[in-house]
Amino acid sequence: MAPKTAAPYRCDECGWTTLKWVGRCGECQSWGTVVEAGANPKRLRVEAATVAQSDKARPITETTGETTQHTPTSIGEFDRVLGGGIVPGAVILLSGEPGVGKSTLLLDVAARVASRGSTVLYVSAEESIEQVRMRAERTGALHDSLLLTNTTDLATVLGHVQDSTPSLLIVDSVQTVAADTVDSLAGGPAQVREVASSLMRLAKQQNVSVILVGHVTKDGQVAGPRTLEHLVDVVCNFEGDRQSPLRFIRALKNRFGPTDEVGCFDMSGEGIVEVLDPSALFRSGSSQPVSGTATTIAMEGRRAIPVEIQALVVPTSAPQPRRVVNGVDSSRVAMVLAVLERRAGLKLSSADVYVSTVGGIRLSEPGADLAIALAVASATKDKALSNHMAAIGEISLAGEIRAVTSSGQRGSEAKRLGFHTVIDTGVKTVKQALTNAFSSTQSEKAPF
Hints:
It contains ten helices and 20 strands.
């Protein structure tokens, strides 16, 4: 029997093999990751190495158990996401869409750290030093301890680190830096893996904190091999709408802190400013009640934020009524509309429905279902709800109101902001919730 021939091509990202070259991996569906595997290396026996006395394994009960020390950056919202600050020797990956403000935020972080007497090295592989200087002048991020360099060569980056011995290294971006030892273009899976591995070794050996800027694909994923996210200690995503100055930073992975924190920033021509209390950003501020509006208390990380949801219902004779949503999940809105028609008797199948949030925030949690239902019902009946009422709850297909997480914190935030009526899990069905909501705005309690 003839020996089986090894597949000559292999995916750098997932390890899938094939007998002929293809542009797209058949397993992970990544483009441009299938490369020639080459000859199989000769297998050698691995002998056991002698372990030094200081490196011997110890019982877990004999370890010190000391927590990792965080160094604050003086930007409260950024420190909140990181768990208190930057850990010495940690590697942080910050990803986001082009133009969202990653470089502006990190330049501010670099200036804040440099102002405390620490040396910061900012490696700009995409912009010239003059361009970075112009942004620093505009945002007030100038300091003598902030060093700038423009290079795309990994060896040169490591040489600058040896010369300046910084406490913080920022590389913008990891997809544009290349190593001469890897025979591929910058940004390829092999190059990104080599650059990230080298900077990871540098961070651990010299106790230098490293922040890497990462590009994202059109579907919002970090560009490059999946191993990049496994290598680093912290993965943060910087997101926002170009039509809105509001920006959010979220921790998707954090070895030194929680992953459910969210930082809020405001982007302007003078730079990026943290928003300590975003309670008023997602409400219209109208003093008079308007039909088609309802307020919910949403959870963004560990922070409870009031969000106003607006709805508009317009009768139509089209065979397929329009369903337009902005800032909320379209599938959840479709489900809420079906429940309202079947369980509450609202005729929505012959009307165009528009649902949107205020301020550009995006809600994906089910706790906003009840507020969406109230806003749609208010727009359908052209009856305004009270400005002092908040709705919190998930709606099931049976028309029941389910409890949501962090209900106590949501209720406390609602009372702090002056909401006198909170419709939550105290009601059992969506029809009962509609009756209570509209009865509270009238002198006589007429059923909905």
